[in-house]
Write a structure and sequence with these properties.
about 290 residues; alpha/beta; Rossmann fold; Dihydrodipicolinate Reductase, domain 2; 2 domains; 6-stranded mixed beta sheet; 4-stranded mixed beta sheet; 12 strands; about 35% helix; globular
Amino acid sequence: MPAARLARRARIVAIADPDPDRRARLGPGEVPAHPSTEELLAAGGLDGIVIASPPVAHEDGARLAAAAGLPALVEKPPAPDLAGARRLAALEPAPRIGFNRRFSLGRELAGSVAGSGSIELEIAYRRFSWSPVMVRDPAVLDLAPHLVDLAFRAGIGRVRGVTATSERPERVSIAIEGTAARARITCATDRAYRERVVVRDAGGRVTFRRREGGLVGGAVSRVRRGPHPLVGSLAAQLDAFAASCAGESAPDLATAADGVAVMAVIANAAESLAHGGQQVRPREHEVTA
């Protein structure tokens, strides 16, 4: 809701939530609130729908939107697994996927490692700071999809191998060997907010570096009491979705095929974790982003 208020082209005209308490907090006095997606769609007056339900419910919502011929933006991860992501991609119209970090770091990283080199991507946050309502997914499903998507945007190419290690469900590290470059991803849902990106060329020289958050950055943000660091990218994503709904080009907005590519890597990572961190080489679900 804060992102929608900041967006320039997108406007929330109705919401749907099965929980009456949440409907009471979000709907009356601002927009109509419906108890189901079916009722929301039946009421009409929509140009598009954002599906921000738990991942297990994404497919049902996207199918309803597709049946109504309505563009949909499905929050990440697109589905709990690769099979679900593929089913989303088979819908007509296929939904867009909410990899909102494309609208912050993603623009600067596009093509940054294509040809050679490596990229390190790290993200951490304390789950309670985001006040999750229902979903407490492990880090490999909660945060890793964002960074895998950014690695593809940076230009790592086709995936040749994935290795994953995890101390506990709240933390995961993933190494991706691509045909053009390598990526190292680190995620945690039980640490202070921090995002870090380092790009190196083939000789190991740093060509791009960005860091946000951390202990000092977190202290400063609490004093200044500015907007949540994700609001800006979420607002930009909503505006891109609005442009897409109007038939305009939205090149930064992730497609359902992008979601399949990301979830293929997540599937490889899960397989690697199940086999003690052994490298997994993509087989039938090898995908080029």
